[in-house]
Ornithine cyclodeaminase family protein
Amino acid sequence: MQHPSIYLTYLNRLDVEELALTDDEILAAIKTSLASQGRGEAVIEPRMHLEPGVANGHFNVLRGALREPVDSAGVKVVGDFVDNYKHNLPSELAILLLFDPRTGVPKAILDASRITDMRTGAVTAIGAKYLARKNSKILGHVGARGTAYWNVRLMDRIFDFDEIRVHSRRVESREAFAEKLRQDLGKPVIVTEDWQSCVEGADIVVEASRLNEPTPMLKTAWIKPGALVMPYGTMSAVELSLTDIMSKLVVDDWGQCKGGKFGSLRAHVEAGKLSEQTLHAEMGQIVAGLKPGRERDDETILFWHRGLSLSDIALGHAMLEKAERLNIGHRLRYA
């Protein structure tokens, strides 16, 4: 029996850059995937970790599938290696594989390092859209890794902040981060010397730090009543008391948040402070209109997102569609 020839699309880093997805294209793809998840039109499995044991880092393996209009199953493997800056490499490098969910035929291989950054920023921004006060004007952002840029850029697209404060552990990284934001957003960005001056009194607080071990750097007392706090570091940087001041606790996927050894609220899950009983909603349920987001200005809300394979798959699909329209990418023969 003669099998048909199979070809797949390969988009490398240069191709992804050439696609130049707009802020609105990124946000639309991620909003669609969150709503699909909220309506139960997706399959998502908790991420797995592979620790090679030869460096300060690990691999995350994310798996999922989305129905129409994306109609793809996908697997992303992303390395998270804290010391890569010493080798002049990004801390996170990733590959996304997309498959036909009906036959298992591979459809595409994409450099997913930029996808990881974009989709994380988009989930942060959409979370803020539904959970932050509409008149939020001060952003405090800790962390300067790749996802940080898209966090700030896409949130500023929605809120047009009056004040953006940034901080990270290394002086050179936070200065470079701020300068890129100044150039791309066309507005001032304040670099702070410490965590407190970055987040205290901010309307929206994002904690995207890179710690080697859990350390309570972000103090609960600094959080302004009515603020939105979004911590998502691999190693926790928050105090156990953080959930005590929250009106609502929201996650991206409870299945991923309730297990595993990593994550900013791992200790809160183990202590029972974040549980199925205390959880308000998954973000997808809010985007789909099944549960309310922010209902009052005086609500202090926490949103913990661990990163979803569904977001990677949706953004990868959007890139494939645009690449086909613009004739960007490479056609590889599989069989």
